[in-house]
Structure formats: C-alpha cells, structure tokens
Amino acid sequence: MAVEDFRQGSADDDATVAAAMTYAAGQTYKPALVFANRVYDLTRPLRAFSGLHLMQFPFGDEFQHSQVIKVPEGGLLGFDPHVRSITLENLSCQVRDHLLEPIPRDAAGGAWTDVRVLGGGYNGGAPLLDGAFLRLSFQPTYVNNVTDSVLRIGGSDSWLFTRGPHYVSGVLPANRPFLDLDNLGQSVIGSVYITAQGGYGILLSGKATGLVLDGVLIDATGREDDDATQLAGLQILGGTDITINDLWVFNANVSGGSAGLVTVRGGSEIVFVNPRFPGVNGDTRAADTTSACIDTTVPITVMAPKAVGRAKLITAVREELVTLVGAPEWQVRARP
After folding, report:
1. E strands along 56-165, which residues?
2. How far is Cα 128 from Cα 233, in angstroms, rounded to an integer?
3. Which of 263, 272, 331, 276 has its CA nearest to residue 307?
4. Whole-number Å distance between alpha carbons of 119 and 121
C-alpha cells in the first residue's frame, strides 16, 4: 500500500506517514507500506505496531539514488514492549542519531522482539540499534559515515550480517568498537566488511553462550596513521562457547596500543578456525607486522591460522593457554 495514498492536500511527511500507519495497524492482516521515490523528512518517532512493514521497491543504498527517509532524533520508531514483528526493507535512511529508540541492554524494560532490517542503506548517526534484542535479523547492505558504534546490543537468537554483502564504515574514536556486543548469545555474526577507521571492529563481552562469528572482515586497506584501525581489531572480554570462523584482520593496531591484532582478556571455550592476518593487501602494507596476531590471557584454540607477510606469532601469559592445530611455522610465546 502506497504511503502517498494517505497524503491529504499539503499535509507534511509526519502526518502522511502516521495516517498510513494508523490505517495499516487497524487491518486484521497488516499491509506493507511503500514509500515513494522522494525525500521524507520526519521530525518525530513513529508509533510501531505488531506486523509493521515499511519498505520501498527500488534497492535502497548509501547513495540515496531513489529515495531518502530522514530519520528523526530518537529513532524512526518508538519502543513498545508489547510490539513484535517489525520489518524495515530496502530503505535509504539519513540517520540523525538512532534507527530505533534506545532501551537498556539488560532488558530491564523489555526487548525489541522479532525486528528485521532487510537490505537498504543507512548513512550517519549511531548507535543505530542500542539495547536488548530478541530474534533480531539485521541485514543492511550499507551502513556508512557512522560516528559511534553501529550496534550496541545484547540479547539472543539473532542473525546479523548473514544475508548477502554488508559494508560498514565510519570514523570512530580509537577506543570505540563498530559492533559492541554485550551478553549476546546463541547468535551469528556473518560476513560483515568493517572498514575500521580510528575505532576497532568488534567487542565481545558479558557471560552469554554460543556466539558465532563467521567470515567477519576487519580491514583498513588504503588507510594509514589516524585513519587506520588504532587498536586490536577484535577484542574479547567475556562469553562462553565462542566460535570464530574465517576472521580477517588487516592493518589493525597501528598505534601499538594493543598486545596483538586480536586480544582475548576473558571468556571460555573460545575457538578460532582459519583466522587470517595478512601483512600486505594490494598496495597497502600493514603498519604492524611484528606483534602477535592473537594475544590472550585465557585458554584458546587456534586452528589453521594464516599470516602471509608478517610474524606468525601468538602470545599469552602462559604458553600452555594456547592450543594450536594445523599451524606449521607458528610460534606461541609467553609474555610478562
């Protein structure tokens, strides 16, 4: 159903979209609401309802070729703990701060439930999502020009960046992760390509169980000095039964402020499978090619690591903390 069908005379975008949503909410079977190929400048969050589906037909992208939704401060949708099943599909959004209203990460006031962000492009703002989520499917194609973490979430049963290509970029302070995942369990983070400028790729913390990273790329090709990743690209502070498959970290820790390209400071049952730490990518040589690929203070297992053009080194407070499998020419070295 076309949003523009609900525009009355000179009604502004807030009134038009609200009227469309009021109609859709009143239907037994909720219709999808389709935005036209134009700019929508929204000034206040919309009231969500269960079964809400906002979409556009052209492929939404970061370049905003076909349509733009200027997301109001505070988020496109306000939070209601009784609402579930929300879909945002192929939208092109200029984000002022948040995509959805922030809520506590500990679920003290409830959780966003059954939210799907499918395709589309999101430019600016952040955190786009901040709070507790249950069964989140976060599949944007583009998230660019962020100035804070894209996600600052906890919860479970979520699939992030697992459908198609996903590109994330922006410039963050050195100590800020693009993905800040605290107590996120039984979830999968797929092949997101994070161009980590300034800040670092991912922080894992908390006590949740069963997180999988599958094909994550944390990359600063073509960047140098302050524009490259300043600290370790992946930092693990906690969690149980964490599996990290096919990780790529390139040109991280350019400041030398971390003990390695990946640091592990907490958690248990942590397994790396086929992690990749190249020293050169194209015409870019990593600033740090001599420090550890992984540095840990807790037990980890590392299988079939790769580090062409740099030191094949893992450091730990005790050598016996590291189990290496299929890793010829690699060294495990104790450090103070």
Report:
1. 68-71, 77-78, 84-89, 92-95, 112-118, 121-123, 129-134, 137-139, 142-146, 151-156, 159-160
2. 20
3. 276
4. 7
Local structure of residue 226 (DSSP, 8 states): G
Instruction: For the chain, give the percent of residues with pLDDT over 90.
Output: 96
Residue indicated by tokens 């939208």:
91
Q: Which residues have CB under 8 Å from 181's CB, separation 6+? A: 151, 153, 154, 189, 202, 203, 204, 205, 211
Q: Which of 210, 209, 140 is nearest to 179 (CA)?
A: 140
d(C-alpha 251, C-alpha 142), whole Å: 22
User: Is the separation of the CB atoms in 175 and 152 below 8 Å?
Assistant: no
- Residue located via tokens 């893992």: 314
For residue 188, what is the DSSP state?
E
Closest by Cα among 308, 304, 306, 312 to 332: 312
pLDDT tens, residue by residue, 3-40:
999 999 999 999 999 999 999 999 999 999 999 999 99
